[in-house]
C-alpha cells in the first residue's frame, strides 16, 4: 500500500521544527487538479478556529469553463497567502512587530503574517488592502443567535496564535480583522494545518520548502507552479498546480 502523503508531511514537519526559525520557510501548495470542491478544508478550518457566520479562513471558489461536450470545472481554495511583501501590513496604522500585524521573522511563526488581536483597533484598512480578500472583520455574529441560548461551542476558546481565546461579546477577536495563519498553534504542537489534514483528496501540501527532501519542495519542483494574482507583486507563499491558467479564473 502506498504511504499516505500526510504521514510524509508529518515527518517533514518534525524535521523542520528542529531547524532554527531563520533556516526554514513555511509554504503551502494546492493541487487544484485533485480538488473536488467538497470543502472539507473550509469546514475543518472553521471548526478548528471556532469561526462565526460569514467569516471563512479557507473559502473554496468554483469556476466553470468551456461548453458541451468539453466543459471543465475548477475549484480554487484560498487561504491567506502569507505574502513576503504583504500590502495588508503596509495599510495597518498600528505598525511594527509589536503592532497589530506584521511579517513575523522569529519563532514558530517565522514567515507568517499574524494579527495581534490586542493591538488591532478594528479600523479595517487592511481588509481592502489584501488583493486576495483574505481578511475579514469579525462583526460579532453567532450561528445560534436568536435561539434560547448560544451553544457552548461558539464561545469555547480557540487557540489561534497559541492563546486560549474565548469568543465573547464585546471582546477580541470580535471587532478585529481575522484571517488564516497556517494554524500556527498546530505547528507549535507538531501538527499539520487543519485544512491539509482534512483534505480527503490530498490536494494540499505543507512544509518547509527550503528543505529539498520535503514533499512540498519535491512536488513544487516537479510541476509547473502558479500563484494567484501575480501582477500584484506580493510574493505569496501559497502555490498552485492547475490545468487552467489561474490568471484567467482568479484575475491578474
Defining traits:
3-stranded mixed β-sheet, 252 residues, alpha+beta, 12% strand, globular
Description:
With 252 residues, the chain is of the alpha+beta class. The protein is 23% helix and 12% strand. The chain has 9 helices and 7 strands; from the N terminus they run H-E-H-E-E-H-H-E-H-E-H-H-E-H-E-H. It has helices at residues 5-17, 40-48, 87-91, 126-129, 152-155, 184-188, 194-198, 215-222, 246-250; strands at residues 26-31, 60-65, 72-77, 136-137, 177-178, 204-208, 238-241. The strands form 3 sheets. Strands 6-1-7 form a 3-stranded mixed β-sheet. It has a two-stranded antiparallel sheet with strand order 2-3. It has a two-stranded antiparallel ribbon with strand order 4-5. It is globular, with a radius of gyration of 18 Å. The mean pLDDT is 96.
Mean pLDDT: 96
Low-pLDDT parts are: none
Global Rg = 18 Å
Structural class: alpha+beta
Helicity level: 10-25%
Which percent band covers the strand fraction?
5-15%
Run of helices and strands: HEHEEHHEHEHHEHEH
Largest sheet, spatial ordering of strands: 6-1-7
Give the number of DSSP strands: 7
User: Which geometry do the CA atoms define?
Assistant: globular
- So how many helices? 9
The major beta sheet can be summarized as: 3 strands, mixed
* Distance separating the two termini: 41 Å
